[in-house]
Amino acid sequence: MQYTTAQKALAEFIGAFAIVFIGAGAVIATSRFGDGGVLVAVALAYGLAVVTMVSAVGHVSRAHFNPAVTIGAFVTGRITLKDAAVYVAAQLAGVTAAAGVLRAAIPKEIWDPFHLGAPQVNPVISTGQGVLIEAILTFFLVWVVFAMTFDRDGAFNKLAGLGVGLVIVMDALMGGPFTGAAMNPARAFGPALVAGFWDNHWVYWIGPIAGGIVAAVVYDLVILRPSDDVAASAAE
After folding, report:
1. For a surface tag, which of 75, 85, 89, 234 has the fewest beta carbons within 10 Å of its beta carbon?
2. Could you report how far apart the first and last alpha carbons of the chain are, in Å?
3. In the chain, which residue ranges form alpha helices assigned H by DSSP?
4. Burial bucket for residue 125 (CB in 10 Å: 0-12, 13-18, 19+)
5. pTM for the complete prediction?
6. Cα–Cα nearest to 211, from 98, 134, 108, 154
7. What is the residue-level pLDDT of the chain in tens, covering all 236 positions?
């Protein structure tokens, strides 16, 4: 079934909304009321939000929910410039709406100390190290997305969003204490915009986009295109 641009945009909007509402909401809730399991709880909340949304609308838009994924798909020719622009706009709109709802739903004295769940670079590392961590975490994420959604031999139809959700959990458990493990410029943008918290915000654009592009290009050039050539040769 072919889906319209509007349907794809709605899928991206809802998916991105869920990621921030659940992910950032979990940061606020567990940081304020948690009893020691904060990192695991946030990682699971973030991962489960992705699993659910990828499973729900992956067949509509391939469930990017992330400008780093969309830019990687565009750079490798897997999505048009028009669709890429629509996807990113929908993602940014979704996360901004989610952050706005969180601000309305939770008293300011609860969310304000945590900047509405916006990711932060831990002062124990430099911003350069933060960029490197975000780039590597996002490399893993985009690598798995390409393997499961763009590779015709991948496991998407069998496992839906499970692999993508699990890599989010995996990354969050490692990177959460250092950078908040955003792995997604939109995930950082929504809460930052609504809370007015821009400290080191650039880290969450440079790192994820760089890591995402490298993952997309390597997977596309080394795995997808050679396999496409083999399939084409076999069909002749």
Report:
1. 234
2. 27
3. 5-33, 38-61, 67-75, 81-105, 108-111, 127-145, 156-159, 162-179, 185-195, 203-218, 225-235
4. middle
5. 0.92
6. 134
7. 789 999 999 999 999 999 999 999 999 999 888 765 688 999 999 999 999 998 888 888 888 999 999 999 999 999 999 999 999 999 999 999 999 999 999 999 999 999 999 999 999 999 999 999 999 999 999 999 999 888 777 655 556 588 899 999 999 999 999 999 999 999 999 999 999 999 999 999 999 999 999 999 999 999 987 765 545 454 55
C-alpha 222/C-alpha 117 separation (Å) is 37
Quick one: how far is CA 101 from the chain centroid? 19
Three-state DSSP at 46 gives helix
Per-domain boundaries in the chain: 5-228
Residue 128 is encoded by which pair of tokens? 């350069």
The single-letter code of the amino acid at 174 is M
How many residues are given for the chain?
236
Which CATH number is correct for 5-228, 3.10.20.340, 3.40.50.10540, 1.10.10.10, 1.20.1080.10? 1.20.1080.10
